[in-house]
Amino acid sequence: MNSVGDTLRCSIPLLLVLTFVFQVEGRAAGRLHRTKRQEETDFKCPKADGLFADPETCRKFYICAGHYPFSQNCPSSLYFDDIKKFCTRKTKQLACGPVETPETEAPPTPDPHLPNECDPAACVLPDCFCSSDGTRIPGGLEPSETPQMILLSFDGAVNSLNFDHYRKLLNKSRTNPNGCPIKGTFFVSHEYTSHFHLQKFFADGHEVAVHSISNRSPEEWWAKASYEDYAEEMVGQREILHKFANISRESLLGMRVPYLHPGGNDMMSVAYDFDFAYDSSIIVPMSHTPVWPYTLDYRISHKCMQGTCPTKSFPGLWEIPLNTLFSEDGTGGMCSLADQCVFQENDDESVEQFLKDNFKRHYNVNRAPLGLYFHVNWFNDRNKTNVLLNFVDDIRTKHRDVWFVTMQELISWMRNPTKAANLNSFAPWACEKRENSCNIPKNCEVPLTMDGYTEMRYMQTCAKCPVKYPWVGNFEGSAEGYKIVDLARDAEPESDDSKKR
Ligand SMILES: *[C@@H]1O[C@H](CO)[C@@H](O)[C@H](O)[C@H]1NC(C)=O
Ligand SMILES: *[C@@H]1O[C@H](CO)[C@@H](O)[C@H](O)[C@H]1NC(C)=O
Ligand SMILES: *[C@@H]1O[C@H](CO)[C@@H](O)[C@H](O)[C@H]1NC(C)=O
After folding, report:
1. Ligand 2 atom 11: the closest Cα is on which residue?
2. Which residues have any ligand 1 atom within 6 Å of their CB?
3. Which of 185, 291, 441, 490 could form a disulfide with 207, with the two C-beta atoms 3.0–4.6 Å apart?
């Protein structure tokens, strides 16, 4: 029963660290109310920037920004872990107090081959979009003419344990202004996924996108993974989804990196070379004006929070960035995935206010699409789930220009910006119903050999059971196993040109 735990494990530590880093940013820019310098302290920052344990108590820590220490308290009942660098519950593993850390390598020197800054005259829709600070609405629309798109996404495995949770939110009685059911996007990792359940969501018109085969840890692996690693993990997962959930490759166009640790140019080159239409892995720092999606033709207009954003140009490849979520009074902290903001338990009002504040920041400012991105753990909390359902129903009934769309639907709109008043007949947003392959799935029990151990794994699919559990380096789950790079290499000499000759 590792499956739920595995889904939950996703990217929590990184984001909490980023949460605090964002606070430093905000303060440096004078955006937060508390601009007053903290009382003088004897604490000396071990490094110019970063998070450091308070030597006196585990309940506090320091954010160092340019060698200046800001004292911070952990939320009540949480303690600062100096290895993980975030506040956590008290467990035996809690690393309290200053812990010596080995020197990390020097920061990367800026790439001299960075693409140019956005040139709005040269970058034109439908294939290119950018603006100098990333906040401009495409098509020259006024905010009042622009639909407020909301992107619901669900990261991780999809299976019988979370199917009902997601279906409750995506209930067909919840509709967009054109009468079609609201839609969301599933970034699916392979391990523990039931292709039978996933296919039902796809049949109902939701989008399926790629979140890797293994979703492996340690999290930093993804920042350093090679081109070949990404090809196996991401293109391999597209093949698995194609084969076992019977979803056409042309429908599998998006990817998001596990733990939101992007792998720079290698990751984006795989997306580009293997014909993905978009990536959605890059975090936008906290800002009161959110950023619109953009193509990667030009230099990214905002700061790269994660440090490993691409530094080359990938013309026409869309980035649907993750705007940092936060409530105006700071309750819940800041996060890029909604489930990673930390609220006091039993605090429905704060959660509701958090959702409303983020909606307003998009709706009342520049209508940049609002991303509400979740792991299943949000839905394991009944109170939070109910708050979310009420929020969705509230804004749906109050606003006729709010649409819950998939990532691909968003890109269709970006390519062809259409006024909110004309969207009821906007073809890419029409209702979508696809066929399910079966009503009764096969329950496959297949071996997975990893690091010399063989375990049985279970997967539900309407397709034929594979011989082995499909995995990195063997996406087909066949006895032999083929790698994506081998197939790509074999395919190359047989270009269309040579066939014609
Ligand atoms: C969807 O909503 C309807 C009406 O509110 C309800 O009867 C039904 O049980 C819901 N279905 C799911 C799957 O939650
Ligand atoms: C959590 O939900 C339960 C059941 O709806 C409700 O009674 C309780 O008040 C909620 N918690 C808070 C503090 O809002
Ligand atoms: C897979 O989907 C296609 C439509 O995309 C359909 O024609 C075909 O019958 C499906 N295959 C199975 C096994 O259901």
Report:
1. 346
2. 167-168, 171, 173
3. 185
